[in-house]
Amino acid sequence: MDHQTQHLLDELQALKAENNYLKEQLLSTSNNSAFSNQSPEGIDHFKTLADNFPVVIWTTRADGSVDYFNMRFYEYTGLSAEQALDWGWTAAVHPDDLNAATEAWNRSVRRGTEYEIEYRLKRKVDESWRWYLAKGIPVKDSEGKIVKWFGANTDIHEQKEAENKKDEFLSVASHELKTPLTSLKAFLQLGEKKVSPDESAYVFIEKARQQSDRLQMLIANLLDISKINAGKLIYDKAEFEFDVALKEAVENFQLTAPDHHIILEQGANVLYNGDRLRIEQIITNFLSNAVKYSPGKNKVIIRSQIHQENIVVSVQDFGIGIEPENLHNLFNRYYRVDNRSTQFQGLGLGLFIASDIIKRHNGSFWIESVPGEGSTFYFLLPINGKQELIDIDTDNQTYYIGNFIEINYNPEKKQIESNWLGYQNYDSVKKGCLIMLDLLAKNNCTKVLNDNSYVIGNWSEAVDWGSDYWFPAMQAAGLKHFAWIYSPSTFSRMSAQKSIDVILGQITARFFTEKDEAAAWLDAQ
Ligand code: ADP
């Protein structure tokens, strides 16, 4: 049972104890097989239940406009039904949360997917803002058409406060732990110098020093997390030679993992402007995971190379690997693939911190993995701070050639054929998609052969834009059949699948692994 459900049940329990009358009503209702709306005493069960429930309950029409709130909402916000119904409720939402709340709601209504978002609502009595978790589900008729939405807003203010307190505590505690640890390390270093390596005590001091290094890393991670949460992690960017930094990071790491053979294959011999220490931190994190999650295997390969004006670093291990369904969660805070947590120590913070560092350098990250065979963790950093999208040639009517995509109109088959090249991100996907839309409309096409065979990496940040704006625009421009040839890259496939999952309307989209099959399917349409 999740936290929210537990919370709701607790509240319901408390309400039941307080209100015996309602309890009787509830019991008599559940014993009554007919479950009629009106009790013999003339009480409307559902209305009584909804109005007394300790959460805000609402329903909306198919278009997302609210047609009912329970009493709780009116009491809490002080709004009248006249003010709140339809879209008036937005007046009670905190201005900083309003955009995200309405955008998410519009998206759910458009896609017909469940709604879940947190926002602050103003309480009338003391004019305070309290955090609520809003959840809504669509209700469909027998033909699968959405006819209504049912939802509830649960007060999660206390949980939010507790979360903030926890973050604050983490920050203070890790600061406080740092000082004594620094002197402990200094004393151990002194001890190491005073004791000869032949003495038995030397081994103990050495081991104590190694453990204090681990402790220092854990504390540094906790401190980073609290800074990231508070938006206070400062990046100190300067120019440095990338491969020199990489080599040093690998050499330093190798000292801490003498039983492993770390093979370094370098090819990113460029000047890069970034926070060197933070980038070395990503490398160290990937390497220590590679070592940690490959028991019994001692080889790790780390590569750097330049691709389309990007530095791409990969760390490959031959260890336990990761199941595909766990891949996309790995960069979340505290996430650990659970069944292994007891076997391998860790807090689940390293990759979350790495993802923040990478994002703050306008980069991206992804993983390729085969369970039981090993994983390769990648990160990409655009050398100029931003991926360069270069136009090579176009006639603005039948073709476009860029360094990230080629698009052609095939007059024989009356279809658009697009071929995405290499690394993609939000900007490249958006630009390529808009050109495709333009050529589709200009040539009155209904079919697209979209080839992702040469796509590498992760473009997940463009998924929402693709499904919310681009596919509907393509449909409006006449698109009917969309054949999508998968990328071999797992993260790219996941993004493709996600964009398609939510397409509504007249477009039929299909995934293929072979281009011939995709072309044959389109021909048959
Ligand atoms: P930690 O290793 O401290 O748990 P990380 O954030 O570095 O935290 O990693 C998160 C999770 O990702 C790990 O708990 C593990 O389940 C998984 N993971 C990371 N690297 C690898 C790897 N090379 N092979 C298999 N699983 C990995």
From TrEMBL:
It catalyses: ATP + protein L-histidine = ADP + protein N-phospho-L-histidine. It comes from the Bacteria. Residues 5-32 form a coiled coil. It is an enzyme of class 2 (transferase). Keywords: Coiled coil, Kinase, Phosphoprotein, Transferase, Two-component regulatory system. Residues 172-385 form the Histidine kinase domain. Its EC number is 2.7.13.3. CDD domains: HisKA, PAS. This is histidine kinase.
